[in-house]
Amino acid sequence: MRRSVQFQSPERAEAAPDRDGVRQRDPLRTEFGFELPRGYVDETGAVHRTGVMRLATARDELVPLRDDRVRENPAYLSVVLISRVVTRIGTVEDIHPGVIEDLFASDLAFLQDFYRRINAEGHTRAAVTCPSCDEEFAVNLAGGRLGES
Known about the structure:
This protein is about 30% helix and about 30% strand. It is built from five helices and nine strands. The chain has helices at about 60, 70, 75-85, 95-100, 105-120; strands at about 5-10, 15, 25, 25-30, 30-40, 45-55, 85-90, 125-130, 135-140. About 15% of the residues are buried.
């Protein structure tokens, strides 16, 4: 069962006042879009690059620990965990461990880092430094068109 709920986050910065002069808090983001570096190739050969990952719950982190595949091979934990929180890749909405197993290694590594960023850090931005001019700026790891951040 998938739920999509908008919560009010007490930690978030307050938004501009509304027309009554009352400040409204931004809702907590529970879903984050991403773009895979290479893309998932389905059984028809179609490549799917964009997708959505939701925030993990405590259950998402606990249930895979009871999975026999994880007990036999602890490295499989990330496959099961990622399959629980990715809600869509392209037009594919039935995301299960088999789909995650068929990702390219670079795409799985991207999703593992993306999971860590949205669940531990609360955002998809990373601070980077230009190797040519040493200017520091932020990029959005969720993906986008070339040149966008």
